[in-house]
Structure formats: C-alpha cells, structure tokens
Design brief:
The protein is an alpha/beta fold and 580 residues long. The chain is built from 26 helices and 14 strands. Strands 8-9-10-11-12-13-14 form a seven-stranded parallel sheet. Helix 21 links the parallel strand 11 and strand 12.
C-alpha cells in the first residue's frame, strides 16, 4: 500500500470517528497523521523494509505506528475494518463530497437512509434533502454540484499524486537500468494539467528489453497491460496507468514533443506545418530531432514551453516570436502563505523558517489562521500578539531570512474581517480568505469579496475560488468584477500552489495578468515538505502566460518590503514600474 492510500485510510478514519461523535481532538489527530503521511518524501513500505522506526516521524506515536505497519504490510488494519463495519460501504463517497462532511452525512444516512451517491443524488433532486431541517434548496443544489464535480474527476488523479508516482518510476528505472541514457516525464503531467489521466514517460536506452522488463516488474505494478519492442503499459497500485516509450538518441526530441502533447497542440502543429509544405516527424520516425528546440526551429517557430501547448494561440504567438520568458521557480524570492503548529500546521515556526531558508528564499510570511477558524485552532488577539513576538525571535535565531508577521484571516459572510483595523495594521502581511458560507449566490459572494478587497489592510486574497480539485466546486462569483476591484485598489491575488487547490486556475490567472493585478505564488504550506510545492503554482502561472514581472514575490526582499510600506492606492503603479 502506497503513502497516498495509507493517508486516505487515515482520512477515512477521521471522518468515520467524527460521524460517531468522537471527541474533536481525536478526529484532528487522525487528520494530522493523514496529512503527515501524504507529504512524506519516502514510501512507508520502503521505510519499514529498511527497518526504520516510524515513531521518528513527528506526530506518529506507538499506536499509530502499529496501525500504519499493519496497513502497509497486510493491506488491512483491524481497527479500520471494525470501524467501517459500523457504516454502509458507500458512506465514505458521500462524506468526501464538497460541502457535506461527517455531520451532514450522518444526518442524511440516519434521517433519509441515504447510503450511496446515487441515492443522495435522487434525494437532492426530488426535494427530500431540501425538506430536511437546516438544509433547504441551496444545500441540495450544493450537494448536486459536488456530485457532478466528483464524477467529472473520478477517472483522473490529482497532479500531486501523479507527479510523485511518476518521479518514483523514473528514479527506479535510473537505479535499475545501467543502459538508460535518458528518461523524462511527458504527457499531461509535463504540461501541469490539474488532473492526470495517465503517466507518460519517454526513455532512451542501450538495452530496451531490460528497461521494459524492469518497468513491468516495479513493486507498485498491479497489472501488465501492453508490451511491444519499444513500449510498455502497466496499471499502478495508485490506480493510474503508466506508459513508457523508447526513443532513439537522435530522435528523442520528436518523441518527447509528441508524447507531451496536447493532442490539440499536436494537431495544430501539423496543420501549421502542412500549410508551409513541411512534415512534422512521427514520434517513431528515423528522421526526427534530437531535441524539441530543433523541431520547433525547423517549423520556423519559437520554442513553445509545454505549459502553453493547449492548441489555442501558442503557435501563432510562436510564429511571431511573441512567447514571453515565463516565470520560473528560481524567480520566486519569498513564500507568503505558511502555517505552523500555532494553528493547523504540523511543524514549528522555526522548522518552517529554516526550511524556507534552505530552499533559498529571502523572505517568508507566517500566516496562521485567524480566530474565526476555530476548527483550525485560529489565533485569538492575545495569541496573535504572542505569535508576532515569536516571529521576531525566530527571525533573529535563524538569521539570513526575513520573517513577516502575518495572518490568513477569514472574510466573514457579510464581508467584514476577523480582526479589527487596529490589529491588522500591526501585521506585515494580511491574507483575506473565504472559509465559510461558500454557497452564497453570485451577487452576495462578489460583494463580500470586493468589500474585503477595499480594506486598506488586506494585502492579498487567498485561494479566491475556494475550490478543492475533485472534491469541492468553486464559489459562484463575478470574477471579472473582482479582478478589476483588485487592480483598482492595489490588492494582490494569490496563486495557491497547493496541488489540491491550484487556485487561481490558469484562465483566471491570464485575465488577472491582463488587467495588471499583482499576483502572488504561495504554497499555503502546513508542513515543511509542502514548501516544495512552489513548482505547481509556478506552472499554473506559466499556463497563464506570466513572466516574473507579473508575480509580486519575485521581488528581492528589499524591494518587496519597500512595496509593502506604500499605501495600497500607490502599489499598482509601483508594481508596474519595478524594473525586473
């Protein structure tokens, strides 16, 4: 059982215990374990095989270590099996829906006898859900949207899980195949799509048979699907198909380009070439190109980064040499959305800051939740003051990195803020985020967010649409009006790099960029490992055609601090005038 599957079991345990009415601290403990496991850099199976003590992992004690070991070694955990037996088999599918959760699931089950998604959909459509106490028509509509979102992504994997699986495959093939010259991840994963249908790899090797044999014999392969002299396909225990295709050294670029896609991009490329009497080499052609740059050059096109290969306007732009130099991970100088164990993070403030410094960042904002997020151990005004004092102490003790006193503050249902102005003005960085009342109608939600945008102390709006990919549908709002309000007031918008969110999405990013809104790429980290997720946010920004000049936290620390000292009304002009 891989880490993602183990983490899912612990998430399920937390939800089932919550449905039983277990104490909140016990539920949170299992949630924290799930989060810890999902971010481990090494597979638990490998750690156990190497004799490592799981109790060395922060937050995992003897009892949890035993449960994990049972699960990894036997694919079963007696505690979980017994707990599941108290509920209908389909109940977990319901609790996973956006806006439902354990308490509502329990009410639906006990009140209406609903045990499956199909039964819930029928009850939401025929009025039974709306007729329940404390539910209503809006709740029923929200449930239907959640079911639709879940079904749309049921056959695809979130990019974070697919990326980890692909990287493990590549590492295993490098270790196990001495004749391997090159291996690269292609397909939708290389293009950084939000969800991934299957994993594609392209390889060059002196021993194709050995490579394909090793690929088929990987520990997490559950089924061999296809095999030729130059390719193989398998099904992984993660529940996703993986393909590896072998290309010659001199034609690697052609194969890499083709299998990166997208299909629409490749078709548009063929049309472009055909109009000019040029042929695009097939991926298995002997007259292909060693690298992608040469292929695009032969077609009289500027190199097109994989994130832009969607079959829209990228070929026309490349023909005019209008593809910009897109933002890169190395351009990011600071992370501006990070949680510690002061609220709902796993790690200490010192560990988060040290890790950020080790990543080469010049600044980091510690933005634990505001008081309104009681479920996330949000900070009272008194605790916020203590939190700020520790920020200064940690900054001094770690050294070499600027640590900003911040908050991720709730935007309440009426648009008011969780802290008063006299509290906010003492902070260096303020994120305003929606965490509740997500089912408001479009007009009310738009008004609510714009009201927060007009606060002189809200520096950025966090994860604007609130979506969780495949789990929670985005809010309904007039995003054009919100983007314009942000541009008018000098309020930044966050590109949340958490791969479960990727919020803003690429099309929103592109529009905000066009309007000149300052954009911030932040990881929303709750663990030290999550600070590595910057790449997902950068990829989203690249898909939105962003350069470093469009991203606020590409500013060096001194320029960024100078920017923060400006009144918000002056920030847009300053942002656009920075020479970078």
């Amino acid at each position: 059982m891989n880490n993602a599957q183990v983490a899912e079991v612990f998430e399920n345990i937390a939800d089932l215990l919550a449905m039983k009415g277990e104490q909140a601290f016990t539920v949170r403990a299992y949630q924290r374990v799930a989060r810890t496991i999902s971010h481990l850099p090494t597979e638990l199976e490998q750690m156990l095989h190497e004799g490592k003590n799981l109790q060395d992992i922060e937050g995992i004690g003897a009892a949890i270590s035993k449960k994990i070991t049972e699960l990894v070694q036997n694919d079963k955990m007696p505690f979980y099996e017994e707990l599941k037996s108290e509920f209908p088999p389909g109940i977990i599918d319901i609790v996973r829906l956006s806006g439902v959760g354990p308490k509502t699931t329990a009410r639906l089950w006990k009140g209406l006898g609903i045990e499956t998604l199909d039964a819930l959909e029928a009850a939401a459509k025929d009025g039974r859900v709306a007729a329940m106490p404390r539910m209503g028509v809006k709740a029923a509509e929200k449930i239907l949207r959640g079911i639709e979102a879940a079904r749309q992504t049921s056959d695809r994997m979130p990019i974070s899980r697919a990326a980890r699986a692909a990287e493990r495959i590549a590492a295993s093939l490098i270790d196990g195949c001495p004749g391997l010259r090159r291996i690269a991840i292609a397909g939708s994963l290389r293009r950084y799509e939000e969800t991934i249908g299957n994993i594609d790899l392209v390889a060059s090797t002196d021993d194709p048979s050995q490579l394909l044999d090793t690929f088929e014999q990987l520990p997490n392969v559950t089924e061999r699907l296809e095999r030729t002299d130059a390719s193989a396909a398998v099904l992984l225990s993660e529940g996703i198909r993986a393909d590896v295709r072998i290309a010659g050294k001199k034609t690697f670029g052609s194969a890499f380009q083709y299998y990166t896609g997208s299909k629409a991009h490749n078709e548009a490329l063929i049309v472009w070439a055909g109009k000019r009497g040029i042929a695009v080499p097939a991926p298995d052609s002997t007259d292909g190109f060693a690298d992608e740059e040469s292929l695009y050059l032969a077609l009289s096109l500027q190199f097109i980064p994989p994130e832009l290969r969607v079959g829209d306007r990228e070929i026309e732009a490349a023909s005019k040499n209008e593809i910009p130099t897109l933002v890169e991970v190395a351009d990011i100088k600071g992370d501006l959305h990070d949680h510690t164990h002061w609220s709902d993070g796993r790690d200490s403030m010192e560990d988060m800051v040290k890790t950020a410094k080790d990543r080469g960042l010049q600044y980091i904002a510690i933005t634990d939740h505001s008081v309104g997020r009681g479920i996330a151990n949000g900070l009272s005004i008194e605790r916020l003051a203590q939190h700020g004092q520790q920020v200064r102490e940690v900054e001094e003790s770690v050294g070499g990195i600027r640590v900003l006193r911040g908050t991720e503050m709730d935007i309440r249902a009426d648009g008011s803020l969780d802290y008063e102005d006299e509290v906010l003005e003492k902070l260096d960085w303020v994120i305003g985020s929606i965490h509740s009342a997500m089912d408001q109608d479009e007009a009310k939600m738009t008004e609510r967010i714009i009201k927060a945008i007009h606060s002189p102390h809200v520096d950025v709006i966090g994860h604007l649409t609130t979506r969780l990919i495949g789990e929670r549908a985005p809010i309904r709002a007039d995003f054009e009006a919100i983007f314009r309000a942000a541009a008018d007031t000098g309020t930044a918008l966050e590109i949340n790099a958490s791969p479960e969110r990727l919020d803003l999405k690429d099309t929103h990013i592109a529009r905000a960029r066009e309007l000149g809104v300052p954009l911030v790429i932040s990881t929303d980290s709750h663990t030290t490992e999550s600070l590595d997720n910057t790449r997902f946010g950068v990829a989203s920004a690249r898909r939105g055609w962003c350069t470093a000049a469009n991203i606020l936290n590409t500013l060096p620390v001194d320029d960024f601090l100078a920017y923060l000292k400006l009144p918000k009304s002056q920030r847009i002009k300053a942002f656009r005038n920075y020479g970078r």
